Amino acid sequence: MLEYLSIGQIVNIHGFNGAVKVYPLTDDMSRFKKLKEIYVEENTQLVKYEVESIKFLSNTVAIKLKGIDTEEEANKLRNLYMKVDRKSAVKLPKDSYFICDLIDLEVYDEKGSLLGTIKDVLQTGSNDVYIIQTEEKDILVPALKNVVKKIDLVNKKIMVELPEGLI
Length: 167
Hints:
Blueprint: E1 4-14, E2 19-24, E3 37-42, E4 45-56, E5 61-65, H1 71-75, E6 81-85, H2 99-102, E7 106-108, E8 114-123, E9 128-133, E10 138-142, E11 148-152, E12 157-160
Parallel strand pairs: 7-12
Antiparallel strand pairs: 1-2, 1-6, 2-5, 3-4, 3-6, 4-5, 7-8, 8-9, 9-10, 11-12
């Protein structure tokens, strides 16, 4: 499992004091209120920053990081990802998972046959949809309780009961 989880992507600067505008990659925008420190992946290395202030915008968040005080410094962070360590991640409800933990899990049907591996998760609003890559094609499987029977992160397996006619 990944030790650091992406919570947002820096998409622009905000103002003149070095604040950055962040597009959230989380379902819970309020999680930004609790941030004390974050990591930014710069040139394949994680650089730790203290969070000075947070301001919620319409669909983004403006974050002022300690040590980033000019537009030029903030602009260097554009398009980079903001991360938190796993112990600082939000606690998920039962039977909820981080998408990064599901990627590359093997998916088996109710007979124990390997269907493929999860390559991505679509977030549709009503329910997530797992994109399972098989040898022939991708299969879209709804992440519903009556379809996804078991997720075993330790053994990297998911058991599903596919609806009639899905494949």
